[in-house]
Amino acid sequence: xxxxxxxxxxxxxxATIDNPPVNALSxxxxxxxxxxxxxxxxxxxxxxxxxxxxxxxxxxGADISEFGKPPVEPLLPEVLNLxxxxxxxxxxxxxxxxxxGGLEVALACHxxxxxxxxxxxxxxIKLGIIPGxxxxxxxxxxxxxxxxxxxxxxxxxxxxxxGAALGLVELVSGDLIEAAVAKAQxxxxxxxxxxxxxxxxxxxxxxxxxxxxxxxxxxxxxxxMPNAMALIEAVRGAFTLPFPEGLAAERALFVRLLADExxxxxxxxxxxxREATHxxxxxxxxxxxxxxxxxxxxxxxxxxxxxxxxxxxxxxxxLIETTQELIxxxxxxxxxxxxxxxxxxxxxxxxxxxxxxLITPAVGLAAAGNADIVVEAAFEEMGVKRxxxxxxxxxxxxxxxxxxxxxxxDVATIAAATARPQDVVGLHFFxxxxxxxxxxxxxxxxxxxxxxxxxxxxxxxxxxxPVVVGNCFGFVGNRMLAQRTRAAERLLIAGAxxxxxxxxxxxxxxxxxxxxMSDLAGGDIGWRTRKSLGTKAAVADALCEAGRFGQKxxxxxxxxxxxxxxxxxxxxxxALIERxxxxxGVTRRSFTSDEIVARLMDxxxxxxxxxxxxxxxxxxxxxxxxWLNGYNWPAxxxxxxxxxDTVGLDVIVKRLEAQAAESGDATLQPAxxxxxxxxxxxxxxxxxxxxx
Length: 692
Hints:
With about 700 residues, the chain is an alpha/beta fold. It has three domains: about 5-260, 2-enoyl-CoA Hydratase, Chain A, domain 1 (Alpha-Beta Complex); about 295-475, 3-Layer(aba) Sandwich (Rossmann fold); about 485-685, Orthogonal Bundle (N-(1-d-carboxylethyl)-l-norvaline Dehydrogenase, domain 2), CATH 1.10.1040. It contains 28 helices and 17 strands. Strands 12-11-10-13-14-15-16-17 form an eight-stranded mixed beta sheet, sandwiched between helices. Helix 3 (about 100-110) packs across helix 4. The chain starts with a strand and ends in a 13-residue tail after the last helix.
C-alpha cells in the first residue's frame, strides 16, 4: 500500500499521508517521506510542498508495533532533518491529532497550519521517555522554552487555537488545504525558507530564567522520574548547545530512557490502560445505549461528586435525597466545591454556573423516573441498597441502567432486588469522585453486554479510566487493599511501628503510608466494615474503641494537635501496640524498609493471582490499571503485578511461604496460579486475557 500519495496544485506539491488507522510513523511511512522530499527537491516543476494527511489524524505518533524492537532505517530524526533542510518550503497542514513524532514532523516543516479541531502534543513523558526527534530543540526555538517545557512535561495535547496563541501554528483555517497551498506559494516567493533550527530569538535570558524556575519546581515534584529529569536536561541544551549537538544530546537521553526500568514501567502502564478498554466477551460491534439524562441517589460527598462528573461532561443529572434538608445541604456542597475551583482560577464563574444548571436537586426516588441511567450512592449496607433498587425498579423506564456505587457488596444480590438484573451494573467511583480517575465497572454474570459497553463509553465520556471487573467482595482494588491492611496490622504486632511502616511505603513511592491514609479517611470506616463482616484487627479496633478515628478526632495512629494535617508519633499508641504484642505472646523485632515493603506487597500480589485465577480481572494489566489510577501506586513501578514480575515470582513465592510458616496464617500460602507461574519460570505478563 502506498503510504504517501502525491498530487499537485500548480507549482505546489501535496503529499498526503495515508497509513491507516492513525497515520503512525512506521518504517514504511518514514521511507516514503524521505523519497517524497528528495523527489520534490529535485523536481524543477515544483516550488513548494504541503504535507497533509488522509483520515481523522495528521500523524498520531510512533508505530507502537515497533516498540521494543531493533530500530529500522530511516530513523525519524534523519527524516526530519531532511524535511527541514529541503531547499523548497515545506508546509504542514494539520487536521486531527499531531502527537509525538507527528508534531515533530510539523516542527521540522517551515510553516504549520491547523484545522480548528486539531490537537497538538508531545505526550512522550507518559511513555516514560522524551521527544526523540528534535521536539525538545525545535519547540523551544519556536515558542520559547518557558512555554514549550510545560507542554512536554504534562504531555497533554493543546487545541489549534491555543497552538496559534503560542505561535506553534501560524494560522487556523477551516479550508486547510487551500490555506496551506497559499502559504506554500507565499514562502516560495520569499526564497530560501526559514528553518526552526536556526531560530534563537525566543531563547532569551528572560526565557532561560523562567524555564529554570519551572525546572526547579518539576525537580521538586518529579525528581524520582528519569524522564522528567531527562526532559529538563534536553530542553536546557536548547540554550547551551548548538542545534546539531542539542539533537545528539536529546537522542542519547531518549535511547537511555528506552532501557531504563522505570521508563519501561511507564510504557507498560500506558499500554495496560489502553488494553483495559478491550473487554473479552464484549464484541466491538455492541452499541452502547443512549444516555441523555442521569440521576444520582444520595447527595453526600460521594453522590455529589458523581453528579459533578456528569455535569462536567455536559450530561444533565438529577441529584436525589430523602429530605429537603439533606438535598439542600448536598446541593450547597456541590456549589461550594465548584466555588473552590473558581477561587483557584481553574474554572470561570460562567463555567461553574453552566455546570450547576445541569444539576437538578430533588427529593424522592420518583424524580429518577426519566433518567437513562441512575447511580445509587447511598449508605454501604446491603439492606439499604436492595430497598432502593426495589423502588427504582418500579419508577425507572424500560431500558434504563441501574448502577450501584458500592465499594464491596455483591452487585448480583443488589440486582436480584429488581425484575431487570440484566440492566444492573456496578460503577465504583473513587473518592473524591470528581477528581479520581478510576472507575471500576462491576459486571455480574447476568448483566447485559450492551450495559457493559454503555458503562465503558460513559466512563470515557466522564474522563475516567474505566476497568471492567467481575463481581466479588471488594472487586479488584479493595479486595487487594484488604490484604495490605491485614499485612500492616501483622507488622505492628510483629515489631514495627506506624511511622516505620509509613516511611517504608512512601520510600517505595506511595504518597502516603497505610496508617496515615487510615487517619485521613477515618479509622471508623474500616471498623464499621470489620464489624459487619465479623472480623477483627487488634490494634485498629483498640484505637477505634478509644475514639481515635484519625484527623477528624485529632488522634488516630498519630496525634494531630490543633487540626494539623501531618501526624506526630504518639507514645500512647506505641505503648498500646507493644502491649497487644505481649498479650499475643509475640517477641517483637525490627524490620528493614525492604522487609516491610515485601510483607505489605507480597500478599497483595498473591490476592491478585487469585483474582486472575477466578476471572475477576481479565488480565494482569487490568489489576495494575486499577492500582495506578485508584490507589496512587507509583507509576514508575508499573502496578503490583508488573512489580512482581520485576522482583521475580519465585522470590515472592518463597517470601510468602516463609511468612505463612512464621505466622501460621494459611491465607499467606501462595495462590496456585502464582506457584505455577513461578515453577514454570514465567511472569504475569505471560498470561493471556480472559473474560471477567
